[in-house]
Amino acid sequence: MSGNAPFDAEAAHRAAEVVRRHLGPIDEPVLAIVLGSGLGGLAGRIENPAAIGFGVIPGFSAATVAGHAGRLIVGRLAGRPVVALAGRFHMYEGHPAEQAAFSVRVLHALGARTLFVSNAAGGINAAFAPGDLMIVTDHLNLMFRNPLVGTLVAGDVRFPDMSEPYDRALARLLREIGTSVGITMREGVYCGLLGPTYETPAEVRMLRVLGADAVGMSTVPEVVVARAMGMRVAGVSCITNLASGVSPTPLSHAEVIETTTRVASQFETLVERFVAAL
């Protein structure tokens, strides 16, 4: 057992077996999907769904944040097998980085080799507006945690190359699909901060200088572990609000949920077409 137990590859395979015992045989998914705050409505488009609560899966924690249903769902989207997480767990809830990313190890153990991550994010780029969908082209890890610290996990690369954390070909496909269905897709760099406080105006000015286009409190640990295992990754941020200092309006989680609800149909169509095109 590795120094990262109980969140290593062995633990992930045990968790995957629990999922299989509850849900029955699972077709190898063409895509694993992580649905961020308020974006879980896509689960309603999954055909013949079978679901298990996070609390039943070893190594998972029950979801505690509004907009996160806390379920793992298998079924078919656009007629193709997928596995989806309706919600995630965050480091600001007190979870270590390796647990925040553990769900990706379980998705991999269930057969997924391509990962789609989504999140709600604050817009730093002045050209963005609430409701925009941003293809994530790169990220900044300012959580000051890395889920790979510790004993090398079996199957991981010790020093993963992060020159292309988000697959360019998958990003191009998202862009083309967005154009085909009339969705204006933004592109940019996502910055992951620990949270749970929203950023101060001074912090937002700093992030803009560093090259961030959007900021949130998730996603980065998942992508780091996915790349260490050799998974291809695509990501989309829903710009739910303008970051502090960009807009004079005080920030709230209620605004996040309100915006994701408003753009849910566009987001769901985008992901459904993406799955069909893989």
Describe the protein:
By secondary structure, this protein is α/β, with parallel strands linked by helices. It has one domain (9-277): Nucleoside phosphorylase domain (Rossmann fold, 3-Layer(aba) Sandwich). 30% of the residues lie in helices and 25% in strands. The protein contains 7 helices and 9 strands. It has helices at residues 9-23, 97-100, 102-109, 168-180, 201-210, 220-228, 253-277; strands at residues 31-35, 47-53, 71-77, 80-86, 114-123, 133-142, 185-193, 214-216, 232-242. A 5-stranded mixed beta barrel has the order 5-8-7-6-9. A hairpin with a 2-residue loop joins strand 3 (71-77) and strand 4 (80-86). Helix 1 (9-23) packs across helix 3. It is globular and about 50 Å long. The model has no long low-confidence stretch (mean pLDDT 91).
